[in-house]
TrEMBL record:
The lineage of its organism: Bacteria, Pseudomonadati, Pseudomonadota, Betaproteobacteria, Burkholderiales. NCBIfam families: PRK12266.1, PRK13369.1. PROSITE patterns: FAD_G3PDH_1, FAD_G3PDH_2. Residues 397-493 form the Alpha-glycerophosphate oxidase C-terminal domain. Belongs to the FAD-dependent glycerol-3-phosphate dehydrogenase family. The gene is glpD. This is Glycerol-3-phosphate dehydrogenase. Its cofactor is FAD. It comes from Advenella mandrilli. GO terms for molecular function: glycerol-3-phosphate dehydrogenase (quinone) activity.
Length: 512
């Protein structure tokens, strides 16, 4: 569609490009400090890497081998912060590591787990690590081959990654930020020590944003934004510091009973996770390979698929085959290029590139790397970097719950029981899904509902009109893909016919 004349001009303190976890985290932090913030994202929020992660909040046990002690310490501390601030979407999980003496000796694993338990303050919520027997009678041993006799167990957490993004965006908007998904930055220039950005909405209309500070949180496209800025008067270098690394996952029917996960060692020194996913499935991942294509068109390769299947089949009794795969996804990690030869050993730490802020050149902060676990700390550090230009140095997010997190006693199971008591007609599976996706926000769209029929049209698999309207009005969802694959994760269950019916309803009930 042709671009029309600019329809409005916004004057803001901070313009953020990128609606993934880093962009929304920075928007939330900045808005909470009283800054006027606008965030634009050319696709849906969490439309790329931030919805294609391993869905873990973890310290990164394997990063200890790469001596990334600062990163692991910070990630372990943030694990506790997120458990407290988002108990509805962040849940404890035990990880079983079967021992293979040909890969890493037991003493090395014990040392690593000791460090993992003690690098940060000991968790009150998560049990420590220990060595365990993997005899045939053990529930942890049941899916594993009989040749595996011992292993280790430790704690981390899982998370719904795309919902973490959405909740940060909701909180940022509540604190005054403008959140504009499906709005692409197509032009950047500097004028009178400010940024002038041209943004194009999905319908082709444009707007001009004048910003004192530009934050480039574009993920795999961070270089594109740096280069766009460099072409139009900025002193941003545009120099490539980015290494794109693809990580892929596959989903199969559930491979074992229980809420625990497995962490499997491989001959190439990498590890693969097998985790319970959406009650009926297992998620397997991830891979680490350099990526040189268009990040908008990324998919698992045949080699990655074989690698993941072989990794699981080396440990599990019941072999999984290509025909067992029900879904796959891939994400491109925008890592800082630290010149390591191996993609799997490239640092996952975050790095800021700050330019401008002197003379007539306004500040530009570009974000490289980072993990979903440390997004809040990344945002805090980004605002520290920008403090000389904002005068807003005080951090505040450490003890600030995300929307929906005010559960009774911070107990998700207690809240599920409360939902069932208050809405006895609500099936337990539905109450559980609402609680784990929305927390107490679910009470807002369930208000005044008195029967399953009062939820409106049923699209299938637990999805009703009331929830869809909430997602449209409050979570920026405008198509079936937004709802099924990033807001609710029900896409694994929906048939093509059901998806089409939902899409037709959305087109008929578009919110302007």
């Amino acid at each position: 569609m042709n671009t029309t004349a600019a329809q409005c001009i916004d004057n803001v303190d901070v313009l953020i490009i990128g609606g993934g976890i880093n962009g929304t985290g920075i928007a939330r932090d900045a808005a909470g400090r009283g800054l006027k913030v606008l965030l634009c994202e050319k696709q849906d929020l969490a439309g790329a890497t931030s919805s294609a992660s391993s869905k873990l909040i973890h310290g990164g046990l394997r990063y200890l081998e790469q001596y990334e002690f600062r990163l692991v310490r910070e990630a372990l501390a943030e694990r506790e912060v997120l458990l407290h601030n988002a108990p509805h979407i962040v849940h404890p999980m035990r990880f079983v590591l079967p021992h293979n003496k040909n890969l890493r000796p037991a003493w090395m694993i014990r040392l690593g787990l000791f460090l993992y338990d003690h690098l940060a303050k000991r968790s009150k919520n998560l049990p420590g690590s220990q060595q365990i027997p993997l005899a045939n009678t053990s529930a942890y041993a049941l899916p594993l081959k009989d040749s595996i006799k011992k292993g280790f167990i430790y704690s981390d957490c899982n998370v719904d990654d795309s919902r973490l993004v959405i909740l940060n965006a909701i909180d940022a908007q509540t604190r005054g930020a403008q959140i504009l998904p499906r709005c692409e930055c197509i032009g950047l220039k500097t004028q009178n020590n400010t940024w002038l950005a041209t943004l194009r909405h999905q319908d082709g209309t444009t707007r001009i944003v004048q910003a004192k500070i530009l934050v480039n949180a574009a993920g795999p496209w961070v270089d594109n934004i740096q280069n766009l800025a460099a072409q139009h008067g900025s002193n941003a270098t545009g120099k490539r510091k980015l290494r794109l690394v693809k990580g892929s996952h596959l989903v199969t029917p559930r491979l074992y009973e229980g809420t625990h996960a497995y962490i499997l060692q491989n001959k190439d020194k990498r590890i693969v996770f097998v985790t319970p996913y959406r009650n009926d499935f297992s998620m397997i991942g991830t891979t680490d390979i350099d990526f040189h294509g268009d990040p908008a068109n990324v998919a698992i390769s045949a080699e990655e698929t074989d690698y993941l299947l072989q990794s699981v089949n080396a440990y599990f009794k019941q072999a999984i085959r290509h025909e067992d795969i029900v879904s796959t996804w891939s994400g491109v990690r925008p890592l800082y290029d630290d010149a390591h030869g191996n993609a799997s050993t490239t640092t996952r730490d975050y790095v800021f590139d700050v330019s401008g802020g002197t003379g007539s050149s306004p500040p530009l902060l570009s974000v490289f790397g980072g993990k979903i676990t440390t997004y809040r700390k990344l945002a805090e550090h980004a605002l520290e970097k920008l403090a000389p230009f904002t005068g807003k140095p005080q951090p505040w997010t450490h003890a600030a719950p995300l929307p929906g997190a005010d559960l009774p006693n911070a107990d998700i199971n207690l809240f599920i029981s409360q939902l069932q008591k208050n809405f006895p007609w609500l099936p337990k599976s539905t109450a559980s899904r609402y609680a784990c996706a929305y927390g107490t926000l679910a009470l807002l769209f369930l208000a005044e509902k008195n029967s399953i029929e009062s939820l409106g049209q049923h699209f299938g698999h637990d999805l009703y009109e009331t929830e869809v309207k909430w997602l449209q009005a409050h979570e920026w969802a405008n198509c079936a893909e937004d709802i099924l694959w990033r807001r609710t994760r029900l896409g694994l269950y929906f048939t093509p016919e059901q998806t089409l019916a939902l899409q037709k309803w959305l087109k008929k009930h578009t919110i302007r």
